[in-house]
């Protein structure tokens, strides 16, 4: 089985080699016309002679330089940008179609000069001149391609010569067509280009109507871009000379004017479509610089003669495609989702134009498909950019809806804040009225006792009321200052254990009088990031609350541990506790568990504690299983 496979492989290789030999043998052989075929590719039957100076006449080429012709081995002829004159020689065997109409058709329509030297029955040659530098009426057939009738009346191989020259790229794809083949080619050619220009026309009308209805300049810039694409392609396809300026072939040299319509229109379209001025001002300055460069290049382009003007316009196209491909990718990568189809448009177009330029420079084989790449690329860009405009509308609508939702949420939040402020104001007024009423009552009581002998008791009541008022005012101001400050103190390394030791020492007398014991279990090396003064103040508030509400003869537990990047400090007593509906309210300003008629505290200690801890990047909350089950205050701070 393996030997049989080897035999098949070798047989296949021999067949391929034989076919290659036949193909090479066919290079330069006469093109045989038969009734079985309506079209014959003639490029491989041609031989090429390059006249560097362009000074040889037909007689010298035919006789003296006949031996210098070299066989062409490709299906297309591409000589790139060259100042040389190209001579082509090929033979036609028309014995199988004697008397029938056959034509040499050069399908590349923007050759400056193309001349056919056709043999005559008497042995001489007839010269037929064409080219896009001649008026369109000079052509034998009214067609955008160059069509030369062939004489099939002589039953013998006959040599034909073609002379080609021009300032642009010399690309050729010659074919031999019968009358029916020429009709089929013309029908197919008009169908393809009819679809192409029909799509462009539809896009122009559609976007012009959108520009009128939506009043957005981006659609006008896109219409200008489409017009530039259309003008450029009408020129390079030969339809401009055929239908628009048949008597002014000089206009064909200014095919690049379409490029100078496209590029600034594309730049303005991109500025508006990508919202560069609002979102990416640096790139907007880049595009403005690009527009200035195009404006400065235009007079240079008008003054420079061909082919240098062609080189400049080609360079402008390459720079434009690279710039806007990069720009679209950069903006899309930066998070502007509406640029996705913009990126798809230019990256595909960039690849197609790159292949087309390589073909024009004769760096890759040139064929009819490469000649269509600019049209396919232009159509792709037009369709994708038009879809991108619709995608942009959807994106802007989504963005508008998002902004509307955010505005509504912000408004609702502000309304909630205003309502909370009203509630806080009411609470504060109730609190102040009560707090003011208490010392006033004391002063009134002191006044009623003023006529008695207990003068010391009177002054004690007055001083107590004064002290209460001063404490209320100072504590309230302290809370408002903390809540309204924009910049809290910088967080530094501090040890809660050392702060706790100092606090316990300062409150030793109170603890002793209350018969309270403190069980401290704080890691000695626990270090947190906070303001040391404010952390000490919060721990003092927690300890004072535990002493006040823990009840006499009880115990207080203080623990400090490091937990997954945070430090947790917990202060727990075994006193009156709190209900689950009160735990969050404890941190509201002026909230007091139980009756508001109290003589100690102002209902602000836990509210101030929350402000200081949260501004240090931490959290604070309360825990209790219910009334008379004890109360715990838990503090979380980042570890140092």
From TrEMBL:
<dbReference type="InterPro" id="IPR011623">
    <property type="entry name" value="7TMR_DISM_rcpt_extracell_dom1"/>
</dbReference>
<dbReference type="InterPro" id="IPR004358">
    <property type="entry name" value="Sig_transdc_His_kin-like_C"/>
</dbReference>
<dbReference type="GO" id="GO:0007234">
    <property type="term" value="P:osmosensory signaling via phosphorelay pathway"/>
</dbReference>
<dbReference type="GO" id="GO:0030295">
    <property type="term" value="F:protein kinase activator activity"/>
</dbReference>
<keyword id="KW-0418">Kinase</keyword>
<keyword id="KW-0808">Transferase</keyword>
<keyword id="KW-0472">Membrane</keyword>
<feature type="transmembrane region" description="Helical">
    <location>
        <begin position="218"/>
        <end position="234"/>
    </location>
</feature>
<dbReference type="GO" id="GO:0000155">
    <property type="term" value="F:phosphorelay sensor kinase activity"/>
</dbReference>
<keyword id="KW-0597">Phosphoprotein</keyword>
<keyword id="KW-1133">Transmembrane helix</keyword>
<dbReference type="Pfam" id="PF02518">
    <property type="entry name" value="HATPase_c"/>
</dbReference>
<keyword id="KW-0547">Nucleotide-binding</keyword>
<keyword id="KW-0902">Two-component regulatory system</keyword>
<dbReference type="Pfam" id="PF07695">
    <property type="entry name" value="7TMR-DISM_7TM"/>
</dbReference>
<dbReference type="InterPro" id="IPR036890">
    <property type="entry name" value="HATPase_C_sf"/>
</dbReference>
<dbReference type="GO" id="GO:0000156">
    <property type="term" value="F:phosphorelay response regulator activity"/>
</dbReference>
<feature type="transmembrane region" description="Helical">
    <location>
        <begin position="341"/>
        <end position="361"/>
    </location>
</feature>
<protein>
    <recommendedName>
        <fullName>histidine kinase</fullName>
        <ecNumber>2.7.13.3</ecNumber>
    </recommendedName>
</protein>
<feature type="transmembrane region" description="Helical">
    <location>
        <begin position="310"/>
        <end position="329"/>
    </location>
</feature>
<dbReference type="InterPro" id="IPR003661">
    <property type="entry name" value="HisK_dim/P_dom"/>
</dbReference>
<dbReference type="InterPro" id="IPR036097">
    <property type="entry name" value="HisK_dim/P_sf"/>
</dbReference>
<feature type="signal peptide">
    <location>
        <begin position="1"/>
        <end position="25"/>
    </location>
</feature>
<dbReference type="InterPro" id="IPR011622">
    <property type="entry name" value="7TMR_DISM_rcpt_extracell_dom2"/>
</dbReference>
<feature type="transmembrane region" description="Helical">
    <location>
        <begin position="373"/>
        <end position="390"/>
    </location>
</feature>
<feature type="transmembrane region" description="Helical">
    <location>
        <begin position="286"/>
        <end position="304"/>
    </location>
</feature>
<feature type="transmembrane region" description="Helical">
    <location>
        <begin position="254"/>
        <end position="274"/>
    </location>
</feature>
<keyword id="KW-0067">ATP-binding</keyword>
<keyword id="KW-0812">Transmembrane</keyword>
<dbReference type="InterPro" id="IPR005467">
    <property type="entry name" value="His_kinase_dom"/>
</dbReference>
<dbReference type="Pfam" id="PF07696">
    <property type="entry name" value="7TMR-DISMED2"/>
</dbReference>
<feature type="transmembrane region" description="Helical">
    <location>
        <begin position="190"/>
        <end position="211"/>
    </location>
</feature>
<feature type="domain" description="Histidine kinase">
    <location>
        <begin position="431"/>
        <end position="640"/>
    </location>
</feature>
<dbReference type="InterPro" id="IPR050351">
    <property type="entry name" value="BphY/WalK/GraS-like"/>
</dbReference>
<dbReference type="GO" id="GO:0005524">
    <property type="term" value="F:ATP binding"/>
</dbReference>
<keyword id="KW-0732">Signal</keyword>
<dbReference type="InterPro" id="IPR003594">
    <property type="entry name" value="HATPase_dom"/>
</dbReference>
